[in-house]
Amino acid sequence: MPVLLRKIDARILQQEPGWQTDLHKIYSEAEPERRCLKDAPLEVEPFITQALSLEDRWFAGALFNDHLIGAALVSPVREDEWQVRHLCVRAVTRRRGVASRLMALIAAQAQQQGVVLVVPEAGLSLADQVLVGRLGCQRCPDRQGFVFHVAEA
């Protein structure tokens, strides 16, 4: 499935209202735990709004045929580190490698910008742990999560 990476922030959602609908579909199909920004799960709209309320956070969107079919929230936590959380893929496109491709695209972009990509360990489901392991992420206690390494070309 040829998936492209799109950086989605509040400004882009105003320019591309269809992507707001796509994000809503992505996260409405997700388990409620995927919509937790603090302690309790949020409804979809407040989750998206609050997730983008800080200027430096953005959704990494998996674009296919002009529609978002997957997304993850990217948060720069330091000058040299991005954290990625809330990875979710539309139900109709699951089991087709979309999550793996999206993570690989995010990691490649992080590498191009000279930052480390970290998947925080806190709240990571078993399925997510399997995915990050399969993608070659290594547990890094100093960063309290899994660090994504991109193979050199």
Automatic annotation (TrEMBL):
Residue ranges constituting the N-acetyltransferase domain according to the UniProt record: 10-153
Superkingdom assignment: Bacteria
InterPro entries (alphabetical): Acyl_CoA_acyltransferase, GNAT_dom, PanZ_GNAT
SUPFAM superfamilies hit by this protein: Acyl-CoA N-acyltransferases (Nat)
Record-given protein name: Acetyl-CoA sensor PanZ family protein
